[in-house]
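Limitations

Structures in this collection are predictions, not experimental determinations, and the ligand pose is part of the prediction. Treat each record accordingly. The example that follows, with 6-O-phosphono-alpha-D-fructofuranose as the small molecule, is included so readers can see exactly what is and is not provided: the inputs are given verbatim, and the output is the predicted complex.
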Amino acid sequence: MSEHPTAPEAHEDAAMPPEGRRRLEQFEEGITLDRFITETAQAHPENKGKFSALLRQISLASRLVSARVNRAGLLGMFGDTGDVNVQGEFVQKLDEYANNAFKRALDHAGCVCAIASEEDEGPYYVPERFHSGRYVFCMDPLDGSSNIDVNATIGTIFAVYRRQSPEGTPASIDDILRPGTEIVAAGYVVYGSGTMMVLSTGEGVNGFTLDPSVGEFFLSHPDIRLKPECKLYSVNEGYASSWTPAFRGWIEGVKAPGQGWSQRYIGSLVADFHRNLLKGGIFLYPPTKKNPEGKLRLLYEALPLAFLAEQAGGAATNGHQRILELCPDALHARTGLIIGNSGPVEEVTALLRAELRS
Ligand code: P6P
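Predicted complex:
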């Protein structure tokens, strides 16, 4: 019997493919998220432990949300609260829970001065009495929540900035509306068949899988990389009538006989992005007649995922510009998003740029 309580039995090892054996070894080596945070802190003493505190509180909130999502059906947590949020969407009970869990975990930790959330109309500025900290936290607390009641994968997406205003002074909107090039960390947590956090602090991308039996995230996907090319695209074909000729031409091109592409679309950005990050794929959500600015949010959806994509060797644009060079002009600004393996992202973007010029 392996000493680790949840590792497969020895007889299961023999049948395990090499990749699974590698992951098991890492699992048994006990490379936890906590150890990763400690090692990152040792490499950056200038952060004085505040960055570590922030990451540990994100981990805590993620575990709380994971536990609640996994029992939502049993706790009557499906459905909406009857309220409508700033997006004009019915607030799902789990949206509200996730939003509060992350805000409660972060606002007393002395590491954050402001929190921007998809669920809140304006920023939450941490009061000085709570020791307002040096970081700004931007999040979509539960992306894909329209899929909650059908048990499709949903997730939390977040980006972290260093504040611009001096510590000890009130934070302002100028600390929050910043270009993606100033992001210091970004990640997401997918709540699906398992719970996994994918995180980058600017030195590559690592995936940590939650072992709920011990309440720890373990390094399961070290150094996630995107190859230059892929053969999978994610787009909602229901909006084809909104597409420009150049965009439609590219989609029809990959669908042509013999091209060998597949299409996958869950309708949960974090789930579609996660699959594409691990297996290769390009996600495309251009502006539509329904959302002429694009549907997805720049600050707490597109920018963090673009940071991760580029850290993994991929690319992200709004169809014309590099996403990370964009600066939101409002908390809930929307954008088009084309993100994934660099080859197809650059190919589609070149076509759309040329179309714009013509
Ligand atoms: P559509 C979920 O509501 C969401 O905001 C993203 O998670 C997802 O990628 C997108 O909307 C799906 O939008 O218009 O294809 O249903």
